[in-house]
Structures are given as C-alpha cells and as structure tokens.
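Protein: RNA polymerase subunit sigma-70
Species: Xylanimonas allomyrinae
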Amino acid sequence: MDSRQTLASSAASDDPHQGLRAVRALRELADRLETLQVERARSLGWTWQDIADALGVTRQAVHKKFGKTL
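Structure follows.
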C-alpha cells in the first residue's frame, strides 16, 4: 500500500486521532501544492486574476495570501 492509500485510509478511520492527523497532513500537502502551482503560474506570466479564477477565489484573496512571498 502506498502512502496516498495509507493517508486516505487514515482519513476515513474510525479512530478520530488517526483521522484528524491524516486530515492535517492532507491540508499541509494541499497548501504546499497550492504554493508550488501559484509560483509556477506566476513564473509563466499568469495574472493574479488568472490564478484566482483557477482556484475559485477572489484576486484579492490570492494576492493577500501569496503577493508578498512571490
């Protein structure tokens, strides 16, 4: 069983401790992936509006979250 299957199984666990730890790990992974993809998009010339549209949020939200770091 690979780590993705283990994480998915843990998130669906009947044990809340195990399930909540898996949820936290998934949230951290999603945050890292989002940052990576926003960085890639900006390096390819995407506007904040393009990124916001792809993420389904406002331009202001994306710029507030990533504007100072990129």
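Remarks: The two ends are 37 Å apart (CA to CA).
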